[in-house]
Amino acid sequence: MSSKQNDNRGGAKRVRLSREQRYRQLLDVAWRLAREEGTDALTLPRMADEAGVTKPVIYDHFGTRNGLLTALYQDFDLRQTAMIDAALDASGPTLQATAMVIASAYVDCVLAQGREIPGVLAGLAGSPELEAVKRDYQVVFIEKCRRALAPFTGAKGILQPGFWAMLGAADALSHAAARGEISVEQAHAELYEVIVAMVARSSR
């Protein structure tokens, strides 16, 4: 039982959180548990215990364990989107700068989440919740890249299969770097080359 929970049950004054604040608190607790113990620890009763709340509070926010894991994936997507948007806004107006920003921001966001994201994905493998959330994010990310790279592409633009190939490479390289199978620099460089080559093909 957490010290925070002991304090609450020992009579310390509770701070009433808004629904949004409570949701954020619960996500932070879930990320900590996933980081320290792995995603197997992410059961709803365990979450209630760690967060110092009743089980109905957890069920109200997430419904099921898959609902919790899906919320974590959505939280990760929001942070990755914000990181990439900020990096693109600050990048130089060249293909090289834009490609490196996309490559480095994608990889670095996965690395910042450590082993937790592969665990979340493994926990949701095959679930309809994950497929829906991932698909929505992937489509948004592809369109973001299409707009960022449009000034450097040929008249026909980049075809959709190219973007899906880029996204597959981004995921594979990021997770390989997170597992230590390749270096961060290698992941950046390889994804950069994939993006530049994809743009070059659009001019043929």
Describe how the helices and strands are arranged.
Elements: H1 3-9, H2 19-37, H3 44-51, H4 55-62, H5 65-90, H6 95-112, H7 116-124, H8 128-149, H9 160-178, H10 184-201
Describe the structure.
- With 204 residues, the protein is mainly α.
- The protein has 2 domains: 3-62, Arc Repressor Mutant, subunit A (Orthogonal Bundle), CATH 1.10.10.60; 66-201, Tetracycline Repressor, domain 2 (Orthogonal Bundle).
- The chain is 75% helix and 0% strand.
- It has 10 helices and no strands.
- It has helices at residues 3-9, 19-37, 44-51, 55-62, 65-90, 95-112, 116-124, 128-149, 160-178, 184-201.
- The longest helix is centred in the middle third of the chain and has 26 residues, at 65-90.
- It is elongated and about 60 Å long.
- The N and C termini lie far apart (62 Å).
- Residues 1-12 have low confidence and may be disordered.
